[in-house]
Amino acid sequence: MGRLVDQYGAQQAVRVIRARALPPEFTAREAEQERPPDLAARLNTWYARLAASNPAADVEAGKRSAARLIIPGDSEWPTQLDQLGAGRPLALWAHGTADLRFSCLKSVAVVGARAATSYGSHVAAEFGVGLSESGWTVVSGGAFGVDGAAHKGALAAGAPTVVVLACGVDICYPSSHEALFAAVGQQGVLISECPPGVHPTRARFLIRNRLIAALSRGTVVVEAALRSGALNTASHALTLTRHLGAVPGPITSSMSAGCHRLLRERKAVCVTSPEDMIELVGVLGDDLTPQVRAPAVPRDRLNESTKRVLDAVPTRGGAGPASIAVAAGVGLDTALSALGGLAAAGYVERSTKGWRLRKQQTAYRKALDSATLEPPLAPEPDPAEVPPFPEDFL
Amino acid sequence: MGRLVDQYGAQQAVRVIRARALPPEFTAREAEQERPPDLAARLNTWYARLAASNPAADVEAGKRSAARLIIPGDSEWPTQLDQLGAGRPLALWAHGTADLRFSCLKSVAVVGARAATSYGSHVAAEFGVGLSESGWTVVSGGAFGVDGAAHKGALAAGAPTVVVLACGVDICYPSSHEALFAAVGQQGVLISECPPGVHPTRARFLIRNRLIAALSRGTVVVEAALRSGALNTASHALTLTRHLGAVPGPITSSMSAGCHRLLRERKAVCVTSPEDMIELVGVLGDDLTPQVRAPAVPRDRLNESTKRVLDAVPTRGGAGPASIAVAAGVGLDTALSALGGLAAAGYVERSTKGWRLRKQQTAYRKALDSATLEPPLAPEPDPAEVPPFPEDFL
C-alpha cells in the first residue's frame, strides 16, 4: 500500500482499489520484490477495508474531537518519518497544542514495560524530567508503567511531550490515563495513524511502535521483560539506525531481563542517566555528558612516591624512616623528604617509637580500605648498618 | 627486577644486588626501555630490601604455618602467570589442600566491592555456587563483601576455591574471615606473593590484583563503586586480554556505578548469571549458555494470519467473519478457516451477536496487554454488499 501511494498518489490509489484493478506496471514491479506479495488477495482486503471506511465521517469526528489531520508535505509533518520508506504513515491525526514537527526535532523515545516495577517507574520519571530540562522532547506510547511515568516527568518539567497512540486520538486508552492525556493535550500533542473512534488492537500496538522509534533521534528502554513490546520499539530503532540505550537494573528482576539482553548482545548502550542518553543522541561535542568521576580525596594530590611512603607508615606504634623506605620501595632520601611533607600536611606524626599515621588519617585510611592496615615491617633495619647476609642462602 | 631475574636467574640476581653492581649489558638494555628506570635508585632500594629480608626465617615460618613455596617450573606452578611477562611473580606461597595449577585450569575471578550491598553479596554467592557446580573454580581476594560471598558460595557447592592474599598466607586479613580461610585451607588453597608474617598495604592489594586476573580465564565484576579496587583487577584482565564481565545493578546504586561504566565503555560484557559468564570464558560451542527464552504461550503456536484473526475477535458482544477479516487485514476465506480452527482449539466461540473470545482467552489476552481490548469494528459490513462510495470523497 505504501508503494502504491508513493507511486500513484493517495487519490489514484483509492481509485484503483475501488475499481479492483491495479496498474499492470505496478503489478509487474511488485512481482520483482524479494518476497512478492499476493496482490490479488491484498487487493480484496484493501477493497473490503475501503468499503468499510467512511472518510467523511472520520473528518467530521476529527473536527468534533479537535483533532487535525497532518499529511506529508504539511509544515507540521515530521520529515524523519520518511526514513520508514514504504512503511511511512499515510497521515497522522494530532490533538494538542504543541507542533509535532517542532517538538520532535530534538526528541528521545522513553519506552518500557507496562508492568514496570517501582524502580522502573522512578527511573522513567527521572528521565522524563531530565531530558525535558535539557530541551529534549519525550516521545512515548502513553501506556501504563514506563510510558506514563516518562510523560508525567516531562509534564512536570513544563515541557511538551508526544504520545503516540494505537487508537484514535479521541479514545482514552488506558482509560485511567484520562487526566494524563488531557494534560498532554494542553502542553504537548497526542498523535495516531488511526482515525478518531478506532480502538487499539495488538497489531496496532506493534505498528504504532515504528512511529515512536522513527520520530526520535534515539530510544531508551527503561525496563522490559524478555517478552515486551518495548523490545519491538527497540528493534525498530535499530532497523532505522537510530541510537538505542538500555537502562540496567538488578539481575534478579525479570523486568530488566530484556534490557540486559540488549546490553549483552551489544545492541544497546548502557544508559544510567538522562545525560548518558543525551550524549548518545546529541551532536558530537555539543552534548557530551560530563565524565563521571569518583570523589576526590586529599591523597589524590600526593605524588606517587609520597603515596607509597604514606601507605608504609604504620597505624599504631611507629616505624623509623629506613624501614618505611624499605616497605615503600623508595630510597631513604625520598622517604625522609616525603615524611617531612606528610608531617607538615598533617598526615603523619612522630611518636616515641618512630613515625605513625595521625588519628584522623587512620580513620580516613580505614574508610578507603574498610579496615586498619598493620605496620608493614618491624623491627627496623638501617641500610647503613646492613647485617651480614646469611652465607648459606646462596 | 622481573627482567633481571628473567635474564640472570634468581641466584645471580641476589648476588649482583648484594654486590651493588648490575651487569653492564643489563644496564645498557634497560637504558633502551621506552621509560628507562633510574637503575641506581632501584639498586639502592633492592639492596636495602635484601638487607632487611631473612629468607631462612621465611622458610622456617612457612614450615610452621604449613605453607609451601611454589616457583616457576614446579608442577603446581600455574603457567598462565607467564603472560605477566616481567611482572610474573618470582614465587608464590600456598597454604591448603588443593593443587593451585589444577584448580586454576578452569577458573573465573569473581571480584567486587568490600562495601557490597545485600544485592551484591547475594549475586556473588549465587555466582560462587553456580560457577562451582559447573566445574569452574572461583578465584578472588578473600576480602569483605563480594570476594567473601563468592568464596563462601564455592565452598557451599563443595568445590575448591582460590584466595589470593595481599599478605602472608599465615595472616588472617580481614581477621573476621578466620573461619572462611580455615575452610578454604581444607577445601581449596590460599596463595600469596608475600612471605609468611607480612601484613597487607595498599600497594600490595594493587599488586595482588594482577594475580587474580592472570590466574583466571576471565573476571566478572559483581559490584564496584567508581573508585574500587575491583576496577583495577578488571583493567588487569583487559591488559592480559582475558574476558571481562560486569553484573548490572540498579542505576540508583553507587555500588553498581563502576560496573555500568565498564558496560557503557564496552570494556565488559553484560553478565546476568553464572551461565552467561561460562559462555564468555568457555570453549566455543562447548560452554554455550542456553538462549534465555520468554515463556511460550499457546498463541505462539498459531500461524501469522490466525494470530491476526484472533486479535481481531472482540472480547465482548460479537463480530461477524467479514468485519473480523477487515479488522485483521486478511481475506474472508482465511478468516473463516482461522475462526473454525480457533473455535476448535477453544480460543473463540460463537454468540448470538457473532464471534467473540472465550472467557479464559480474554483473561489471557488481558495478562499480556495489561488491559482488555475493545471490539475493533462495528457494525459489520459485508464485502458482497459494498455500500456505494461517497462520491464527494474523490
TrEMBL record, chains A, B:
InterPro entries (alphabetical): DprA, DrpA_SLOG
SUPFAM superfamilies in the record: MCP/YpsA-like (SSF102405)
Superkingdom of the organism of origin: Bacteria
Residue span, Smf/DprA SLOG domain: 69-280
Region called Disordered, residue ranges: 366-394
NCBIfam families in UniProt: dprA (TIGR00732)
Protein name per Swiss-Prot or TrEMBL: DNA-processing protein DprA
The gene coding this protein: dprA_2
